[in-house]
Structures are given as structure tokens and as C-alpha cells.
Amino acid sequence: MSILTTHVGSLPRPEDLIRTMFAKQEGVPVDPVALEQRTRSAVAEVVQKQVDCGVDVVSDGEMGKPSYVTYIADRLDGFGGTSQPLTYQDLVEFPVLQRKVFGDPGRSRRKTPACDAPIKVRDPEAAKADIEHMTSALPDGHRGFMNAASPGVIALFFRNDHYATREEYVYAIADAMRVEYEAITSAGLQVQIDAPDLAMGRHIQFADKDLAAFREEARLNIEALNHATANIDPAAMRLHVCWGNYEGPHHCDVPFKDIIDLVFEARPASIAFEAANPRHAHEWAIFEDVKLPDGKILIPGVLESKANFIEHPELIAQRIRRYADLVGDESVMAGSDCGYGTWVGQAAVDPDVVWAKLRALREGADLASR
């Protein structure tokens, strides 16, 4: 069998689309019809580029979203306040690097409102517009996925100033996001639920608490996610576990072995996670002792998402085989650590290099399959 390839979702946006989205974020009047048309054509372009690179399971590149999480402020009511900036514990002792990380054009513009009213779906059709762009661009016989924020990551970035308890807040988000999750899968696409809260949440929200407290929060987030996806076939979902897509030291990251049992409790059948960068590349070894539950599929990142190095296909093949030899070829799909356009205007990797990396991914997967 041939090992399939994919990635985590966000991809480089065209420069003209970035400029228009910056203008919209800054309150400059933007022609909504023209923006919608350009988004549609950008989705068609990015899907074709992925197909040309040999990617098996493609996405819309998140062309229509300012980021993987802040987009929900345009779709849900209840977020009118202002959140306080989060502290990334690994950057505290490196203040110069901290200013660099948060000074890039993408992060410096992002807006994270707080929840100050009941959460409701403002426009059920908003997700459908993205879905229609993607389904119209997807070639016959090709598989596609779309990203959606997890209840936990929304609660992580958007402070709760309305609900009496954290549990009420997370479940209110879950009930609202159910609409988007079900719309994506009803259209025949796989939904990728982005859940950095399950890993990154440890060092930006629970750094001053013990591991048990963090695991309790992560379990609540997973229970809310399972509630939101109760009507969806697990095979139609993938979960992305992430320690943060930024160029930091990451020495405060929670080890994967400390959360893997919780991750397995989430309903999505496929699990995408960082496995190529210097902080997590060694963690393939945990599957020597941890049994993959029946029906689960691993999507280890075999491409780094913050480096302009183009991974050698033989290295990619070695990374894939480490997992495949432990859990079986049929239980592995080759992916990337994270996205290449997490925030509009934030791109550590040159766009042309991104496509070269994805071509190398295809070559590496073919080598691993042989």
C-alpha cells in the first residue's frame, strides 16, 4: 500500500488577499463581494497546488480565515470584550525573542475578544460559504478536509467574563461549534479540529499549576468536544494536537506521553501532532510502549513548519517508518508539524519553500511505502 500524505491545514495566502484581510482587520472598508470572489479563486489555486505536489488529502489552506481560532469572532455572538495577552512560559526568560515572536505582522494584528454575553451562532451560512469554495475546488476522487477550532482552544484564547463556571463556558462554545463541525462533515469533507489547548495550554495557561490540574482541564475540553461531535462518525474527523506554531525554545512543552491517554479519549479517529521539530522528534518512541487503540490513525508531522530547510526525502521516509513499523502502515498518514499560514501575514517559511517541502513529502512517503 502507498502511505498517504496530508498536512495540518493553513497554507501561504496570496499577497493581495493578505493585504485585503489586513485592511478588513483594521476596519478599512472592504468590498465583501470582491473579497468573497478572491477568496474563492485563492481556494481553487491552493487546492490545485497541493494536488500538483502530490498531496493526497488536501485543504482550503484557510484562505478565508484571519487565523485558525480568531475567525470565530466573525461567526459567533457573545464575544465583545477584550482578552488579556497570554504568557508563553518558555519565552519569559528570553525577552528579546519574546518581542520578536509577538512582533510579527500576523500576531501583532490579531484580536482576541473576551466572552461577555451568551454565545450563539451569528451566521450559520458563514461556514457553508467556505465549504462551498472547497467542494467546488476539490477534484473528483480527491479527499479534502477543513479546519475548525476546538471548544478548548477558543476558551483558551478568549477569556470568559460571562459564564459562571469554566464548564458552562466550554460547553456553550461546544454547542455553538457543533453547527460548523456538522456542516463540514455533511458536505463530505473531513473536519480537522484544531486543539492546541491539549498541549500548548499547559505552558501558557497552566504553567504555575501541577500536571494534574492541567490534565483535568484537558479532560473537560475533550468531554466538551465529544459532546459537540456526538453525531459525527469518528472517521470523518481528525484532531490536531499542537504545542504552539512559533519559533520559541519550547522547553516548557508538556511531554506527549503525559497527555496521550487523554488524546485517545477524543472521538476523532485521526490524530495529527508535531513530530519533526527538535523538541518533539524523539517522541515516536512512546509508541513502543503505548498501544494505538483500534480505529485510530496517526498523522505525525514529518515536515517542520517553522524552518526553511527542505527535508530530504530519505529523512522523511525514516520518520514515517518509525511510526509505521510500530503501529502499521495502514495506521499512519504523513503530515506536517503545523500550518504554514497560522495567522494572516505570519509565515516563517517562504511560500515557494512550502511547496517544495510538500513535494519532498510525496517523495518521502513513496520511499517509505516501498
From TrEMBL:
Pfam families in UniProt: Meth_synt_2
Domain Cobalamin-independent methionine synthase MetE C-terminal/archaeal as annotated: residue spans: 4-348
Coiled-coil parts of chain: none
Gene Ontology biological process terms in this record: methionine biosynthetic process; methylation
CDD domains: CIMS_C_terminal_like
Gene3D superfamilies: 3.20.20.210
Keywords: Methyltransferase, Transferase
GO MF entry, a single one: zinc ion binding
Protein name as catalogued: 5-methyltetrahydropteroyltriglutamate--homocysteine methyltransferase
